[in-house]
Amino acid sequence: MPGTPPGRTPRKSAAVPAVISVETRHAMIAESAYLRAERRGFAPGRETEDWLAAEAEVDALLRGSRRGSPQ
Predict the structure, then answer these.
(1) Cβ-proximal residues to 29 (8 Å cutoff; 6+ apart), any chain
(2) How far is CA 62 from CA 2, 20, 28, 30, 53, in A?
(3) What one-character-per-residue DSSP string does the chain give?
């Protein structure tokens, strides 16, 4: 492969789907929100904040994954 030093195999990145389903995105957000709540001891009153932060985190992750995937 061009650009790869002799005797070295290029590393393959993990396959990331270009598009994920609405259900998969929702599950990723739900898991992240749960983990946020767990870290703060499940204290009530910040569920919406947890969800919105998790949503932003997942969406940023997915945007970054698409940018880094081959065309």
Answers:
(1) 51, 54, 55, 58
(2) 29, 9, 10, 15, 14
(3) -TTSPTT-PPPPPPP--SS--HHHHHHHHHHHHHHHHHHTTT-TT-HHHHHHHHHHHHHHHHHHHHHHS--
How many of the other CB atoms lie within 10 Å of CB of 35?
11
pLDDT, one tens digit per residue, over 14-71 is: 555 568 999 999 999 999 999 999 999 999 999 999 999 999 999 999 999 766 555 4
Per-residue pLDDT at 67: 62
Name the nearest CA neighbour of 54 among 37, 33, 24, 26: 33
Q: What is the mean pLDDT of the chain?
A: 82
